[in-house]
Amino acid sequence: MNQMLPPHAPPSPELERLRKLLGAEKVKLGVHIRKMNSPGSPVYRMAENVIPSAGILVASFAGTLLVHWYLGAALLAAGCWWWMMKHLPRVKDGVFDRTAALVLSDPAVFDFWWSRGVLSLYARLPDGTERAAMRRNDWRDWVRALPADLETQAPGRRAEDTP
Q1: Mean pLDDT of 143-148
Q2: Which residue has the higher pLDDT, 157 or 117?
Q3: pLDDT at site 109
Q4: Whole-angstrom distance, CA of residue 12 vs CA of residue 20
Q5: Is the pLDDT assigned to residue 162 strictly greater than 60?
Q6: Which residues, 6 or more positions from 125, have their beta carbon under 8 angstroms from its beta carbon?
Q7: Which of 103, 95, 47, 56 is nearest to 75 (CA)?
Q8: What are the tens digits of pLDDT across the range 51-93?
Q9: CA atoms lying within 13 Å on the CB side of residue 31
Q10: Which of 30, 63, 130, 140 has an alpha carbon within 20 to 30 A of 112's alpha carbon?
Q11: Alpha carbon distance 28, 7 (integer Å)
Q12: Quick check: 19 and 11 in contact, CB under 8 A?
């Protein structure tokens, strides 16, 4: 059965450091939600996207056919409000969480999705400067270029503020 699994890349010190920085909230991971929440993506869940919207439409059509088009329009408006205000934020959070778990699991997986332009990285350094990396940048060089003492800084404190 192990022959069926794809080979894993060797351990990456940059990915390990990135995991630590993300855990310490020194670096932020950005995910292109629209690309990852599309059919064909490994984190796409059809039940999150198609079934609720189909339910809204069926309820609206049923209200229109059984009662009046006013009820159908009201059900559609309420369904759209629920979709935008309640359901969509949960879907976005779920896609982000699943994508982060996927890409941080293996350096080869991170490299693949980085090359597709799905991921970005952002850090605010202790001196107040901001650094970001996107597809055109090498994420490994970006992680290596971060200051070594970044992990030891307390959240929200600058280097000159520490005794």
Answers
A1: 89
A2: 117
A3: 92
A4: 13
A5: no
A6: 131, 146, 147, 150
A7: 56
A8: 999 999 999 999 999 999 999 999 999 999 999 999 999 999 9
A9: 21
A10: 130
A11: 28
A12: no
Residue 25, Ramachandran bin (φ over 0: left; ψ between -120 and 50: alpha; else beta): left
The Cα–Cα gap between 34 and 117 comes to 12
Q: What is the DSSP letter of 147?
A: -
Report pTM. 0.81
Distance, first Cα to last Cα, the chain = 55
| Residue 163 in this model has a pLDDT that exceeds 70 | no
Q: Is the dihedral of CA 106, 112, 113, 119 positive or negative?
A: positive
Q: At 117, which amino acid appears?
A: G
CA gap 76, 58 in Å, rounded: 9
In 11-26, which positions are buried (b, 16+ CB within 10 angstroms) versus exposed (e)? ebebbebbeebeeeeb
- The single residue listed with the structure tokens 């932020």 is 28
Per this entry, what is the length of the chain?
A: 163
Q: How far apart are CA 125 and CA 58, in angstroms?
A: 51
Q: In the chain, what is the greatest distance between 2 CA atoms, to the nearest angstrom?
A: 73
Q: Mapping DSSP to helix (H, G, I), strand (E, B) and coil, where does residue 121 land?
A: strand
